[in-house]
């Protein structure tokens, strides 16, 4: 069973980076197999255990309600958000229904709706199967969270440490260690940094764009390392979508008459994704040594395909959103005054920045293979 797990891991890595695959093969072929076996025996990880929890960090693509109880323009706990959620409840998800974090949690079989850490109605028992620290507006750059009054990435990390302490009180140190080893960590930041903070914050004066992407990458790597140091062993980092194709940016860029996939914002997202992949690959070996894995999940290509071939997926509209129907309604500005479409399945985007539930589902289908790597066989 273990070897199948390694095989799948390596098969997937080969798609990411052939030279790394060769290195991994070299690494294992030069270490005799009894050593690898011994590693399993001394490891506290029971490979037949399934995933214990989904633990989420990020921005509005993953937020499930952490911004609900304080002032921020990045809020979605009001209509028409949640119009296709059970009982039509606007929960703080930037979607007409569930988002990608929920879909992944359901697939892993841990929980159907990933609870926001700051949701006071959820007890520790509930948060054990899944917990979400994501906050709309935040980024790898703390300035992003500051500008939109979101929970900064560092604060999300502090909340995770607090969560870990609560787990330790409840299940002990060893129990917590096992729990975290068997948990899947899901991370996605970067969009706010690239589309707003760099251009509209002070960062443009401080960094060249290349320097800024490098700065984001460094923050990202520090963050992954921080989670690893606290016991995370299975990490999925989602890449950026082609942000230039979001209705709000696609329209404002259309004067340039460039396809949205090739405008400035999409190019920067794609550039950052490449750096992120390289960064993740460079950490892989350290994870492997501890029976861990960190992978990059690409959302850019599947979203590009949706954008270029909407009919294939039954979409009618790619450049206008369901909420607002042609204006810039997002967050507080997508509200009861907004026009709203009747058939959500025809729209790639629900508000002018965030996908519909249907789109999240299609994106999930595209990364399922990567998520499967998180499930021990
Ligand atoms: C591993 O976990 C499974 C399921 O929880 C259990 O049945 C099995 O006995 C465990 N094996 C070891 C060696 O602890
Ligand atoms: C984006 O990249 C493509 C090729 O990679 C290039 O043709 C295009 O001009 C770029 N767009 C901008 C706005 O720089």
TrEMBL record:
InterPro entries: GDSL (IPR001087), GDSL_lipolytic_enzyme (IPR050592), SGNH_hydro_sf (IPR036514), SGNH_plant_lipase-like (IPR035669)
A Pfam family assignment: Lipase_GDSL
GO MF annotations, alphabetized: hydrolase activity, acting on ester bonds
CDD domains named in the record: SGNH_plant_lipase_like
Family label: Belongs to the 'GDSL' lipolytic enzyme family.
Protein name listed in UniProt: SGNH hydrolase-type esterase domain-containing protein
Species this protein is from: Aquilegia coerulea (Rocky mountain columbine)
């Amino acid at each position: 069973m273990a070897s199948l797990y390694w095989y799948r891991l390596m098969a997937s890595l080969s798609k990411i980076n052939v030279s790394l695959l060769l290195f991994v093969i070299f690494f294992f072929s030069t270490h005799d197999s009894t050593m690898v076996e011994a590693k399993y025996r001394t490891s506290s990880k029971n490979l037949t255990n399934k995933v214990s929890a989904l633990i989420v960090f990020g921005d509005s693509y993953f937020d499930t309600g952490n911004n609900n109880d304080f002032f921020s323009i990045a809020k979605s706990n009001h209509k028409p958000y949640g119009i296709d959620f059970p009982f039509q409840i606007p929960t703080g998800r930037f979607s007409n229904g569930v988002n990608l974090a929920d879909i992944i949690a359901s697939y892993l079989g841990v929980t159907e709706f990933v609870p926001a850490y700051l949701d006071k109605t959820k007890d520790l028992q509930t948060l054990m199967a899944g917990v979400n620290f994501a906050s709309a507006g935040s980024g790898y750059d703390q300035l992003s969270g500051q500008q939109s009054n979101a929970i900064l990435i560092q604060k999300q990390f502090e909340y995770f440490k607090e969560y870990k302490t609560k787990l330790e009180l409840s299940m002990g140190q060893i129990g917590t260690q096992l729990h975290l080893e068997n948990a899947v960590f899901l991370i996605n930041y970067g969009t706010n940094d690239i589309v707003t903070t760099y251009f509209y914050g002070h960062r443009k004066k401080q960094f060249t764009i290349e320097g800024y992407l490098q700065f984001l990458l460094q923050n990202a790597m520090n963050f992954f390392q921080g989670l690893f140091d606290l016991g995370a062993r299975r990490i999925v980092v989602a890449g950026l979508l082609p942000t230039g194709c979001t209705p709000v940016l696609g329209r404002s860029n259309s004067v340039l008459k460039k396809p949205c996939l090739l405008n400035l914002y999409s190019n920067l997202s794609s550039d950052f994704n490449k750096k992120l992949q390289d960064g993740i690959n460079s950490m892989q070996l350290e994870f492997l040594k501890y029976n861990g894995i960190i992978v990059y999940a690409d959302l850019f290509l599947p979203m590009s395909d949706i954008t270029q071939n909407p009919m294939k997926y039954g979409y009618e509209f790619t450049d206008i959103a369901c909420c607002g129907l042609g204006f810039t309604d997002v967050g507080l500005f997508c509200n009861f005054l907004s026009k709203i479409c009747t058939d959500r399945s025809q729209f790639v985007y629900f508000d002018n920045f965030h996908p519909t539930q249907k789109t999240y589902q299609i994106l999930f289908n595209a990364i399922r293979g990567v998520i499967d790597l998180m499930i021990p066989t």
